[in-house]
Amino acid sequence: MFSEHLQRYAQEKYELRLPFLGVFKEEIEKAMESCTSREQVLMKFLYGTMPVRDAGEYDFSVFLGYVRHSIMVYDQMEWCQEIPEDIFLHHILYYRVNTENIEDCRRFFYDKLIDRIKGLSVREAVLEINYWCAENGTYEASDNRTISPVTVYKSGKGRCGEESTFAVTAFRSVGIPARQVYTPRWAHCDDNHAWVEVFVEGKWHFLGACEPEEVLDKGWFTNASSRALLVHTRTFSDYSGDSETECLGQEDLLVYYNGTGTYALTKSYEIQVLDEDKNPAENVQVSFEILNMAEYCSVVNLYTNRNGRVTITIGLGDIHVRAMKDGLCCEAWISPEDGAGTVLVLKKEEEKPGMDIWVDADVRAPKDYPVNPVKLTKEQKERNRKRIHEANQMRESRIAGYFMEEKASPYPDETELLRLSAGNFDEIYKFLSKDQNPDRKALLNSLTVKDYKDAMAEILESHLKGASPYRKEWDENGNLDIYVKYILCPRILLEEMTDYRGFIEEFFNEQEKEGFRKNPETIWEYVKRHIGFEPKLDYKTICSTPLGSLKLSQGNSLSQKILFVAICRTLGIPARMNPVNLEAEVYEAGRFVSVSGADEILRDRTEKSGKLVLYGETDSSWTYYQTWTIGRLKEGQFVTLDYTGMKFSGGVLKLDLEPGIYRLVTSVRLPSGNQNASEYVFELNKDEEKSLTMRLRAGNLEDMLVDNLLDDFEVAVKDESGKEQTIPASVLTEGKANILAILSEGQEPTEHVLNEMLEQKDALNVLDGQIIFLVQSVMSLQNRTIRKVLDAIPQIKVGYISFDDTVEPLARRMYVDPEKLPLLIVTDPGLKAVYGCSGYNVGSVDLMMKLLGLSRNRR
Prior knowledge:
alpha+beta; 6-stranded mixed sheet; 32 helices; about 25% strand
């Protein structure tokens, strides 16, 4: 079954990894002896390539379950026989997709699917499996901890990274190669997305995870992905590799592959980096950064060759590049559409031009281009709509069935969290109902929403028991809130929740623990001395648990800080991860003090920070991670501080910052996806107060116009005799410019827009264009405000559409939120849209009239 090359590769990787397995080495080697020869090859491949922290987090039997299942489907599923060896290893065998919690779950998914796909071709099976995925999982925004595929099934929800991990697991469980595809950040809007590719009939095809279609290579993101700057996939080893796809190189343990050309128009772009003497600089890190959410997000890092050069295939939009080595750096905006390369010269940060001044950048997003223009027939659309509707009903019914109202009724304040627990209801209820200890409710309310979906009663019980000896002291001092949040609470950051208290209590002797309590800084000194990290053997975005870090003596920077906090809480010392800069802190004398920051902070705990005073004209203009961010220079790159929710008050915002070099970024996103950006780099010294007036560059009216061709859709209208007929929207909109208004009558945002129309009725009555209200049925016209508008502006046309079929495709095409109505679209004659918005924006009616006139002049 396996080539000699694979057997040698697996053995070599395994032997290289053994020294890093610590206390697990002997146990793993002994367990390996009981495996068959085929199992040994795959187990050694996994142990030799997996993130080393996984070896300390999960039992040998978990990985063996994946190996045995993959061998079973290889032997039994006909379509597995022709799959190349490297694709089998990376995209059927491999247990990890992203940063999800790992459970031996392949058999669970196999049993759910195998009868459903019997007799189907692999292409038919893929489509059918994705309908099953929709029946059991849908999108929900949440935090960045990635729950397991089984938890997605039990809760029925997940963000796109979790949906795609769920779908990949389903496909792999029946021997269909599948991989997660990511655009780390869109260029045209403030978001990212993950979807799935499956290997069918010798070729990779894409589909939306839990978003089924009747065909492959289609999804709501088809147009969006044609505007991507970068789309990538990844594997956990360099075995063979995808010879047909550009390799972006290895970052830590992972190997990245560039899939952008599948989705968007691309161009090869070369960057040469020179040193201060203008000689080619070798092994310089070149970071490609997309401006998204008002921050420069690094999406790929390449390293220069001996000629100082790197080359990448990338989408046709503007992207920021930063090169760094040995304290020197250089940066620039590049435009692949306009050229094939650029040269950068390394300098010291403080010597670069642009310090202490606002520097503007007009950032262009790639244009929309139909790289994958798959069209569905009317019958396919109808069948898909019906099946998705059925899938939604099945999923909602199953998830609702987990909630036991009779059991929840004695806990009215906890009813919502019990409902959110979905398939984990029994575990949360078991913990909550054990006795009348008030800290049970307090502990549950200290957790995240996602914790309710997979927290185990036994683990929660251990944390409750472990923290209880320290409660009285904090209660008597009137600081019970500190106790609950920073001693009792088991959640520290994004790590898996484990019973770390019991393990830590036994791991250290009484003398060590007493010394830690007297001086918490010695805990951090212990962590730094005993917990190492090998970047090339790990996946840096996965946090180890405190148990895993201690057992393996391995953990990345975040994992080390998590371990510090866990030891503190176990010993009754309030501790946390600072939500802004993710430094580990202890609570002393009424405030939190960093222990993991710069060395000088450790030496002088009373040191005062600098103060930054920001002035902005209008408080409402400043939304963090939308119109502005601030980052601190750290190890050559600016790391964004997390001030989510921070508000200006009276046009002023004051921030306490550690001494260092900082960068403010502001951005205005235009309807075209382009951005008007500005940045300000400055240095803040100890005890210094610095004032700065913010800069936000709004676009002009011409910047609001776009050129998006809408897909045609059906509209029911009544003719002069009152007879209803269905016509294409392209017929309804031909001949004149149009304002299309998809209305959700009675809802506040729609009411606001209608009231604006009443205020503008004189101008709308003489508008050189059509106004078309699109509603769900004639019943919508009974709404009082709609009736008033129709009476005041009699030339408004009314059409009836299926919201299920129409709203989301139109909103996605205009790159606005499909969940927010009304949806307003301005079109030239026909279906070429020039502007769109969703929800209510003050002045939207006046803006649409101006844009309609501007577009007419442009024609």
